Amino acid sequence: MAVANVSTHGASAHDHHDDHEHSDNFITKYIFSTDHKMIGKQFLVTGIVWALIGGFLSILFRLQLGFPDMDMTFLKPILGGWIDESGALDTNFYLALVTMHGTIMVFFVLTAGLSGTFSNYLIPLQIGARDMASGFMNMLSYWLFFIAGILMFISLFIETGPAGGGWVIYPPLSALEQAIPGSGLGMTLWLVAMVFFIASQLMGGINYISTVINLRTKGMSFSRLPLTIWSFFLTAIIGLLSFPVLFSAALLLVFDRSFGTSFYLSDIYIGGEALPNTGGSAVLFQHLFWFLGHPEVYIVLLPALGITSEVIATNSRKPIFGYKAMILSMLGITVLSFVVWAHHMFVSGMNPFLGSIFMFLTLIIAVPSAVKVFNYLTTLWRGNLIFTPAMLFSIGLVSFFISGGLTGIFLGNSAVDIQLHDTYFVVAHFHLVMGSASFFGLMAGIYHWFPKMFGRMMDAKLGYIHFWLTFVGVYMVFFPMHYIGIAGFPRRYYSWTNFNFADMYTDLNMFVSVAAIITFGAQFIFLFNFFYSMYKGRKASLNPWRSNTLEWTTPLEPGHGNWPGEIPTVYRWPYDYSKPGAKEDFIPQTVPLSSTPESNLPHEAEQVKLEREIMAEEGSDILVANESKES
Amino acid sequence: MGFLIALGVLLLVSIIWMVYRIQTLVSVVKGSEKKVATGSNKVNAALFLLFLIGSGVLMFWYSIKEFDTYHLPIASEHGVVTDNLFWVTMAVTGIVFIITHILLFWFSYRYQYKEENTAAFYPDNNKLEILWTLVPAAVLTVLVVSGWKAWSDITAPAPENAHVIEVMGYQFAWEFRYPGKDKQLGNYDYRLINPTNSRGIDFTDKNALDDFPAQKVVIPVGEPVLFKIRSRDVLHSVFAPHMRLKMDAVPGMPTRFWFVPTKTTAQMRAELKDDEFVYEIACTEVCGGGHFSMRREIEVVEPEEYQKWFAEQKTFVEMDPALIADAPSEIKELAQIESAE
After folding, report:
1. What is the CATH number of domain B163-340?
2. Rounded mean pLDDT of B148-172?
3. What segment(s) does the record annotate as region Disordered (chain A) (predicted)?
4. Is the Cβ pair A318, B40 closer than 8 Å?
5. What is the span of the domain harbouring residue A81?
6. pLDDT for residue A602 is more than 90
């Protein structure tokens, strides 16, 4: 455990931040802010807005699926021409709804909204830094995301409709305007928006990585980082390595669409004419797309798992079980996430031998995931559990992670996948393991760090109601989909009544739709709680969850620069909860081991000695939270 | 309608508001915000237990009651193998699912906050970590190896004697082509596609002369069948749910899937006591507005019946002699000989 040799950079180099803090006006404080905390909040609020839009789109197509004969004329005021004379939803627009729901939820909500919010907000606060490595780039990251959002939003309202080829935008469908109206201007806007989005992700990612590597406070070695930071760090690495591949895939698609190249197009006869393109490969796009697409799953999931680790440990009043095993399994997931992509393509026509290889690699990644689950369970075991709303959402996350993760074992097995591929079984699988689990991570994070963000508490009871409605609701929506999927119902179907084998389960689909509407409705409880508490909530105490990590040593509403005085030094790992012998059931990271001889473990004696040596060297006294050295 | 919705929303919001205010005031009166854990802690803990029992019962009840509805009958040889794998995986993951969820919710209930309790300081145990790394790894290895065997068999080259049928997807239907007596499909080129030659068959290739189209796939029971799959425009995917068959149709890259049907349509009708039953083909790769309507039928018949049907079919050229109008004279002669037979 290296305590030594961590330089004192942060403390002195950033002191000037304090000086210009008071000169903030509205624009520099709330709009073009370079403060990581404000940027985090910007990502959060934007993410919430997108979540509402994405959720609303899903309600629209759930209406179609649950009540296929419904007269949707009442939606005319919003959907206009997409509802025909007889009150039926347009089939192309149905696909556009599905596509935009996927795009918005995966990229704008669970990538930008989750990782953007908490990486920005928590990294400097939990590692003890004044701000991100580059505040300006951080600001740029948000505003590029904002531009991406504007473009995507505009595409919802154009005459030919938004992109409609599924969120995976497989060409040739996405390349040819003749194939589906959404592949016209809608697809162009989608691609341009995603280019901005990718740029935003890269700027964010570079910042997160360099901040974690360079700006850790004194004593904050990698082996003392909270698991949240580990997860954000690894997420950023995954994003940095995989998003450029999506960029290249999108760029080649732009060439095919607009400049007559044939990267993905070959031997196509459509709209009464044979296209000149030959030699391209539609499967090439799938390889490029999923090279991002699969790591993307972990980009949305890892931060949620990191947040959960922190919340579960804090509210179990127990150290997270297997801190090192947790880090190792996250590292394992990070590496393996890059070599499993083709399991989305078992029946795409790629070489079956490749299928066998990817089946082996895919099922290996289940092992670190299993380790994480067992570690969570052991953390709960013999704890003293306090069910804050954040804790409830974290337990819910573990449940979804198990349920959705286990169905991955079916889909990762290429022989079993033949039947299940592109059925509702897949829909159920990824909505649980990636969608709902990450969403619950986002919620856990909001409930847990709200007091730090806004200095006030969210209402716990409303949080409980929100949790139970959402938790039960999510299972009611996605669990029945397993049955529908085993029965072979293909996904992205406007209706199933054309087929004898799928002409059933109207009752179950209706049930799912009603459950979806209730679950969506329950989110308004959260919205109220969120915005009301921001202004009228009970004032928070400095460390309301009695947590160990550094962010709780800042003032109630930290200014730009986070700590008014010197940045506190870190003397221990973040999970000293209920340590035998200690007075309280938590010991913050800023408390030196030398001041807690009553609770030190035998192997920590060594570190105490080291700690003393360093202090003697620097001639400084022990600094505890919120104390500043008079100079 | 809009007014009613607005009224409903207003009502809902005001109810939530009142409940919220009342409970805030109550909690202030009780002074509960100063406590580490309030009575809600007990309620939440109990709800986890209730959820475990309630949803567990519901899951078992529905899974057993509805088994025949969601379990599609199997009609191909490899389908038996993959379905077995599916149910073995279901058993293994089912056990893990149940055990982990019992632990998760039981721990949540059992170890709920009590003032007099202290949590155990139990930061790590390497033996446990190794145990639950190796056990899942071993179980997964067994699943992978059996899956790999099945996958290799399914994707192995089709037997020599397989009946070849070309399946071509386009927006929004499938077209089928049989190779005729010579068992050889004629060449095709997408540039040759026109209203009378929707598949772009090259009729200067003599193998194409006896090729014939079919409205539905007719195949003999118990004999290997090879689908040669291609697409004319965008991606499609051939899905025959009862055959446990799925393969994408890719423009510019022909794909294939072979299988052995095990039950005739008539046998399946008798088994299911459903006179309407037919095997179906659907599309499972999103391909545009009509994606959900790409339905075709498969009819599985006895081999003798298949031979009879096969001999009765009219070739493309017989149906439309104009197709070979531009072909070289030796092709025309060949076509005449064939139709005379």
Report:
1. 2.60.40.420
2. 95
3. 1-21
4. no
5. 1-12+33-225
6. no
Distance from CA of A200 to the nearest CA of B (A): 29
The domain that contains A57 carries what CATH number? Answer: 1.20.210.10
Chain A, chain B: beta-carbon pairs less than 8 Å apart: 350
User: What distance in Å separates residue A108's CA from the closest CA in chain B?
Assistant: 23
pLDDT at position A28 over 80: no
A589: helix, coil or strand? coil
ipTM value for the complex: 0.92
Does residue A493 sit within a domain? no
Nearest to A43 by CA among A117, A99, A141: A117
Last residue of some domain: A204, A225, A246? A225
> How many domains does one find in chain A?
2
Domain end marker among A173, A195, A225: A225
- At B10, the pLDDT band (50, 70, 90 cuts) reads confident
| B124: nearest CB among A268, A323, A387 | A323
Contact criterion met (CB < 8 Å) for B113 and A385: yes
pLDDT at A10: 40
Domain boundaries, chain B: 163-340
* pLDDT on residue A269: 95
Contact state of B122 with A378 under an 8 Å Cβ cutoff:
yes
Name the nearest CA neighbour of A590 among A616, A551, A544, A535: A551
Tokens found for residue A404? 């959705």
Residue holding tokens 């290249």? A248
Distance from CA of B133 to the nearest CA of A (A): 6
| A352·B151 Cβ contact <8 A | yes
Mutate which: B107, B146, B198, B278, vs A, most A CBs within 10 A: B107
Overall pTM > 0.90? yes
* Strand, coil or helix: A178: coil
Within 10 A of B86 (CB to CB), how many other CB atoms are there? 20
